[in-house]
Each structure stands twice: as structure tokens, then as C-alpha cells.
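Exercise 7 asks you to align residues with C-alpha cells for two separate proteins.
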Amino acid sequence: MNNISILKVSLLLVGLASFQAAAHFPLMSCHLEHEKVVCEAGYSDGSTAVDYDVEMYDYDDNLMAKVTTNKRAIAEFSRPQTDFYLVFDAGHENPVEVDVVELKEK
């Protein structure tokens, strides 16, 4: 490889690394708390997701409830008597989904 080809490859790799570093992915952590389901939404860079919708669906994909995260990025739902999953879609390619079987009592 000549010096120009090495330089092009190096710039491409630096550009790809910069893109990866700039990408922030949505995260959501949920748990059970008495008769509530509590979720905290944020991003992989450590920032919080304030004023975002978190949705609760049954296993037939029917919307059961929708809650907006508060100023601490927390969304609270009443715990339903049926199975459900939660979705935090921040407008990225892959929304975060948390299934009821993943939840633990806190």
C-alpha cells in the first residue's frame, strides 16, 4: 500500500470510531415495587430521558397504558393482573423492550 492509501484507510477508521463514540443508545431499567411497575429511562452516555413516553402492551400488542417520564426520567405504572411488556422508543432504530418475566421485586 502506498502512503495515500494508508492515509485514506486511517481516516476512514478514525471516522468510524468517531461515529461509534457519538452514538447514544436508549436504555431502560424496570422493576416491581408493591403494586407498581417502575422504569427509569436514559441513554448509554449516562443522560436521562425526561418527558419521553413509555408504553405498556399486553401480549396481543394492545396498548394498555402510556406514561411520560418525569423530571427524574421515571415512569410508573399500576401493575396489571395480566402479562405485559414495556417499550421505550426514543426515535432510534431499536426501541428498548422489557418483558414482565425480566422484572424483579425491589
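Second protein for Exercise 7:
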Amino acid sequence: MGCLKATPNSNRRRTYMNSKRRNFLKLAGLSSLSVLSGKIFAQPQALLDKGALATVPAPKQKFNMCGYAAPKMDKVRIGFIGVGNRGASAVYRIAHIDGVEVKAIADIRRGVAERATKHIKGEAPSIYADKEDEWKKLCDRSDIDLVYICTPWHLHTPMAVYAMKAGKHVAVEVPIATTVEECWQLVETSEATKKHCMMLENCCYDFFELMTLNMARQGLFGEILHGEGAYLHNLLQENFAKDSYYEMWRLKENFRNGNLYPTHGLGPICQLMDINRGDKMSYLTSMSSNDFSMHAKAVELAAKDPFYEPYAGRSFRGNMNTTTIRTQRGRTIMLQHDVSSPRPYSRIHLVSGTKGMAQKWPEPERIAFGHDWISAEEMKKLEQQYTPEIVLKVGEMAKKVGGHGGMDFMMDWRLIDCLRNGLPLDQDVYDAALWSVIAPLSERSVKNRSNSVDIPDFTRGAWASNAKIELSLKGGGNTGMK
């Protein structure tokens, strides 16, 4: 039988099949390498963006940080990194809590660091400034227990990882990470070092959010089936203001297109649904509108000021992003993010169950157990019955000290009280990674016509048996306030 003559079409098909086989072998090799190395975060980001390795399992959990109680400490010695915006307020709040000592402050701007010390009574903290890596000296000190990080987003994970490896617990502003890789780095470092890694999601400590969490635990809403959260806050002017954020870092974050700030609305809903503690997120889909505001603003400003010319040539995130999540138990979550439209502030905070629902935004707070909202008198009775212990103890002081109506102070007080009494934290590294990973995953979904994207299980199966958050102050609650 004679040889078949090669044709252009057969050559093209052979080239295509060989290429397909090579790609398959390449992916198989990468998958095997990933499993053997025990580092899912070592996978090429380009492949992750395409979803090619989405099903590769993470390595086994080294140590379960959910419910972990570090050894108690009589005094919590703190070092602050970044005190330009949120950090300065944190120093002020911490100064009102007993059992703490601020040992050091780091900020690349010396004047900013020195201004933050005015809130501290007693021995002045050491200052680390002027050079980009000076913060590492703070982390390396032997007389610091907790590093409190309030820097631009892209620095959160590198600083937290370094501090944990230096033997420090860390508390980090939101979001704690901006990539899937960073989320896994935080999880693996926290497990390896047995150091707490808490994201400072203050909205979990708002008064109504805490009350609805307590009500949900008592079964008033029945089986929780749906939740909604958001960050709807018109920051158009603030993001473009020259003096708002160091080197315009927050404006630059808006070059990304997705839900870039999901944690404020998501954190309280996850706690209500016991996510990572009886349920887990399975997958999400995300969609963004076009940008109708930010590019136009950049062009408008560039016409008057050359400083803005680089931004006039950039694309920005869409005005509104809507992301939907389905959990393993079949519940749903809807998140929204819009920081460039003229509308009232809202976090939505809606929880819906088989027996009732609650919603905060728009205010006032409302609860329903049927077709109609309950009356103001009935609401007052519920507040008296279901206000949690932490609010009864700290609430009034929190309102006086301030910080988003007091929830910032309540968050800080609870963190210090847990560390001093050797109690598990309300928010662990798995919560920090999960709530933050929604941003990069939403970007991936938006890029791919809102196709669904699997959400990693950072607990690696422990979610099924992890204990729920303890609302009582049992074992603690003895930290005083100045």
C-alpha cells in the first residue's frame, strides 16, 4: 500500500494535534509539580486566569488556625506600620485600651510617623522612617507581639508574611491580599508559624451586624438562605485628590475591573452563614458595567492640570460590579461595589431566612417576620433581648472613642482582649483569605464574560467541623478601657 500524500489540510491538522498534545502534557506536568511541591500558589498566574488549573488540589492543612488560641499575654506590645490614614486613627483608638504598649511606629514619611505619637502617653515609641524597608526593623524587634498594618493594599501581604515569619501576630487592614497567590501565602505562613493573621474587617463589629448575628444564632431567622452586602460609596473626588492617598495608590487600584472591595459587605454575611465553620463558598460569577465616570473625570482634570495626564490615558473599572456566590449548602450571596456614582452610602447588609429577614441600608435598621416590617416598639424589644455581650460591655465607650460609629474601637478592643486572655480570634487567616480572594476572582469572571469561577477552600476541608464564632466573652472580657 502506497504512502498517503501529505496535504496542506493534513499538515495543519497534524500540527494542531501535536500542539494540543504538548499543551496537555505541559499542564499535566505543571499539575503534578504543583501537588508535589505543596504550593498551589506557585502555579503560573496566566494559567490560573484561564482556569486551566482551577481543580488542582491544595496541599493538606499544616495546622488548623480556626479556633486556635495563642498563649495569653499580660500586655500586648504593638508596632504600627503605616499611619497616614487609617493607621493614625488606629493608634488613637489603641491608646484608649488597657494592657497595650505601642513600642514602635513605621512610615516612610517621618513627619507622619511622628504626628501619630501624639496620641500615646508614657514612653515614646521608636520611629522607623525615610527608607522603604525600615518597617522590617520594626518586625525584627524582640519586644513586639503584634504588628498592626495600615499601608497601601499591595504591601499588605508581603508585610504580614514577613512579620509572621519574624514571630509576630498580625492585624492587617482590608483587603489583606489582592491575588490568589497572596491569599495562599498568608494561609500557609500562618499555619506554619502558628501566628494569628487577622484582617481588620471592622464592619463585623457594627452594632446591627452583631445583633443580627446573635439573632441568627438563636434561630430567629430560621434557616439562612440568602445574604447581600455591598460597598456603595461615592469616592470619585477623593480618589482623584492629590493629597488623599500616598502616591495616588488607591486611584491606581481602580485600573482593575471587578469587586475590588468586597469584605465590608461580605464579612458580616459570612459570619451569619457560618462560612468556613459549617459551610463554604463554591463558586462565583461577576459582571461589571462600563466605566461612565472615572475616565471622564481623569480627562476633565488633565485638561486643567498636567499631573493627571497619565491617568487620562488609562482604563478604569466599571461603575457598578455585581458578584453572586453560591455556597456548598446551596445558599446564595450577592455583593455590589460602586465607588464612582452619585448615590447614598450603603453596605446593604441583608440576611434572609425561612422565618424572617433583616436589612440595615437604607437606614433605619429593619426586621420582618412576614410581609411587613416590625414596629419600632417591637424592634426595641429585640434590641434589649439580642444585643450581644460585647456591645453591652464596650458599646458606649466605643461610641465615645469613635471610628465609624464605634465599630472600629470594638474591633480593636476584642482583638486585644483575645490576645491577652489566650482566646481564639473572631476572624482568622481563612476568613481573611476567603473574603479578600473575591476581588481577584471577580476580575477573572468579568474578563471571561461572567463565567463562573471556583472559589478555593482555604481551610482544606476543615470547614465541615470548625466551631462557630463564640459570641460570649467567656474566658475574657476583663480588658479595661482608659
